[in-house]
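re: ur question from earlier - yeah i can do the single chain one, its not a big deal. heres the input i used so u can compare w yours
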Amino acid sequence: MKETLIPVPSKDIQNKISTEVIRRRGEAQRLRNEVEAVVTAAKARVERMILGEEEIGEN
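and the output i got, formated as tokens:
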């Protein structure tokens, strides 16, 4: 095991991988934020419907 060689990508490939990981994490965060905003809006709308402040079926 001491002499097992582990292949390591070139610096250029490592940088490309790192850039892509950062991009995907940013996109995932953006999508989480978008989902949170949609859920918050939906909860507020349901509350207005329950209170009779908004008709069911209004868009």
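Residues 18-53 form one domain. not sure if urs matches, ping me
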